[in-house]
Specification:
By secondary structure, the protein is α/β, with parallel strands linked by helices. The protein has 26 helices and 18 strands. Strands 3-2-6-7-1-8 form a six-stranded parallel β-sheet, with helices on both faces. α17 crosses α18.
């Protein structure tokens, strides 16, 4: 059911009815920010039926963008083309599809999602003698820092001391070489999307004006997660002096500093845009007890907005906050098991276990498996896992980029896992060169020697090589592989096939809904690459997540384990102190505010053979003595 204006409180209503200019909505956990954002966008559309301007909504996850789109369609009772809700990267992809030719990019560029492929570009530069690169992986990390902070090669000297200028020159050449290789091969990774989009808008004022004319209103969700590169891009499409910019943020939930987010970004926004500020302190998610300890905890951070109003509980749910202490981590896990066992299996999807690190979650997973509790460590995957689905995917990649050796290598690797047939990318490439045919056609001819792949290959030759009807190729390929994956004694022949296929169907449906059935192959692949491939979980599955992956979620029963010094906060945060501890505190704030009913906190006196003290955050919450 969609929330209406009548359901809002005074501050929420003010934000929804905001018209022009710059507005910053400081929205705490569970404050209804998504409802406010979607209602405002729907209201802008409804109140301007004769206008043609569009509204741009920028989010940080594909999931959030699509959920908001569904809400807005429901509010408007139709699907509108006047609203574009997308991630920063999706916006950049669309911009570069239209105008990337000014930078040497073609619209059918491919998206690199694997760091191994990115590192291979640097390795190629080194192998060819173009640039001396001792450690491609290390160089890639430095390139990513430059991308994240929006640093151009010409700006690098500002970040090096005078005695480090030689290192600076080396990194400049590596960065420029990497960018050149991307454009030459018509490829982009996530960092370069932002980089090239910013360059395009900076060097082509006409395109910048066009974007600002089309998108008269711009909304940004979770602004506190923006890195400097994203913020610099935002300033190019929303001029500080004249933009209609609506920003939703919470400085208490800045937890992605490793990815360039910084509490200072909100200060920059205030300084650059001078926005009116509306606060939404009401928490409609968390019970009173959770809101109280959250307020006590976050009050210890000194880098907060001094005008920030403390959270106010509005949930009618009577939740419970508990703290348990154990002698060892094994005992702590067993304590969680004993709390979960009474919960009916078909309701365990209401349970979330949060730890600061995957190391702790891995032990929880092993223990749960041993006791017959279904549990999964939830993480974002950019790629498919099953070789059958990978084969379909890399065939499409090779059809879109016929000269891509990377796509051919991965295709041959995937198909080799399907049966006893072993295909070499070198052999396929040699056949295509000798016979003057595409590598994809050569692949289908050679792979058709396999009995189980013959039907798939014959279909591929007709639908991809002869007619380029890639949607028919996808449908026919899944029909072939459905039969190939037929269950034996109730078990799939190829693990992950059903999950990957469900993900494919979901993402494909979203793409076709957004772009229509005539969507080109390169747009289809670009959108597919930008979307994480999340594994659907059963109702009896307990979710195991780090704080970072759990952000934005809510569960009835939240268990936070490992609340001991050196675990949460981490040893490195304690060692570095200051800002590092403040970020850890925000991590803890985010973790506890995922609870919509029961919050179970725990720690052990010993982890991995080392004695530990209770987390300082427990003391700050008033749950243990000082």
């Amino acid at each position: 059911m969609n929330i209406t204006l009548d359901d809002l409180n005074e501050n929420q209503r003010q934000a929804v009815e905001w018209k022009d200019g710059r507005l910053l909505v400081l929205a705490g956990p569970g404050s209804g920010k998504t409802a406010v954002l979607t209602l405002r966008i729907a209201r802008l559309v409804k109140n301007s039926p004769d206008d043609s301007f569009r509204i741009l909504g920028l989010t940080f996850t594909v999931k959030a963008a699509r959920e908001m789109q569904v809400r807005i369609d429901g509010l408007l009772e139709e699907k509108t083309r006047r609203v574009k809700l997308c991630t920063f990267h999706s916006f950049c992809t669309d911009l570069l599809r239209q105008h990337g030719s000014h930078l040497g990019l073609h619209p059918d560029f491919s998206v690199i999602t694997d760091d191994k492929d990115r590192a291979s570009i640097l390795k190629e530069l080194d192998d060819n003698g173009e640039i001396d690169i001792d450690n491609p992986e290390d160089a890639l990390k430095k390139i990513d820092v430059m991308f994240t902070h929006g640093i151009d090669a010409d700006e690098l000297p500002n970040y090096f001391k005078s005695e480090q200028q030689e290192q600076c020159v080396v990194l400049q050449s590596i960065f420029k070489g990497y960018l050149n290789k991307l454009t030459e091969s018509n490829q982009l990774d996530f960092g370069s999307m932002l980089y090239f989009s910013r360059k395009l808008l900076e060097t082509m004022p006409r395109i910048s004006r066009q974007v600002k004319t089309v998108y008269r209103y711009i909304c940004v969700d979770e602004f506190q997660d923006t890195n400097l590169a994203q913020y610099r891009l935002l300033k190019l499409i929303a001029e500080p002096e004249s933009a209609n910019l609506f920003v939703v943020a919470d400085d208490d939930q800045v937890i992605f500093q490793w990815n360039g987010a910084d509490p200072k970004r909100l200060d920059e926004l205030k300084s650059d845009y001078h926005p009116i500020i509306i606060q939404l302190p009401e928490n409609f998610r968390c019970p009173q007890a959770v809101v109280e300890i959250a307020n006590k905890l976050i009050a210890h951070n000194s880098d907060r907005d001094i005008s920030k109003v403390a959270g106010v509980a509005h949930s009618q749910t009577q939740g419970i906050v508990s703290l348990d202490v154990y002698d060892s981590f094994d005992a702590e896990i067993q304590g969680v098991v004993e709390k979960i066992n009474p919960i009916p299996k078909n309701q365990r999807e209401t349970c979330l276990i949060i730890a600061r690190s995957n190391k702790l979650l891995s032990q929880v997973k092993v223990a749960f498996d041993g006791q017959g509790i279904n549990a999964e460590i939830v993480s974002k995957h950019q790629d498919f896992s099953c070789p059958l689905v990978q084969t379909i995917y890399y065939c499409l990649k090779l059809a879109n980029s016929p000269d891509s050796r990377s796509a051919l290598n991965k295709l041959c690797s995937a198909v080799t896992q399907i049966n006893e047939l072993t295909l070499s990318a070198e052999d396929v490439f040699a056949k295509s060169s000798v016979e003057g045919i595409t590598a994809l056609r050569a692949f289908f001819v050679m792979a058709s020697e396999s009995n189980i792949l013959r039907q798939f290959c014959e279909s591929g030759l007709k639908t991809l090589c002869d007619s380029m009807n890639y949607l028919s190729f996808i449908d026919q390929s899944f029909e072939c592989f459905d039969s190939l994956n037929a269950q034996e004694q109730g078990r799939e022949l190829y693990p992950d096939y059903s999950d990957d296929k469900n993900n494919w169907d979901r993402i494909s449906s979203d793409i076709l809904r957004e772009h229509g059935s005539s969507v080109s192959l390169h747009v289809f692949l670009q959108e597919m690459d930008l979307t994480p491939k999340s594994k659907p979980l059963a109702k009896d599955c307990v979710r195991l997540q780090t704080v970072h992956t759990a952000k934005g979620m809510e569960f009835d029963n939240v268990f936070i384990v490992g609340l001991a010094e050196d675990q949460f906060p981490t040893y490195f945060a304690i060692k570095n102190g200051g800002r590092a501890i403040e970020e850890e505190r925000r991590n803890c704030f985010v973790a506890i505010t995922r609870s919509s009913r029961n919050l179970c906190l725990s720690y052990a006196r010993n982890y991995f053979g080392w004695a530990k003290q209770p987390s300082r955050f427990l003391k700050e919450m008033g749950l243990v003595g000082g």
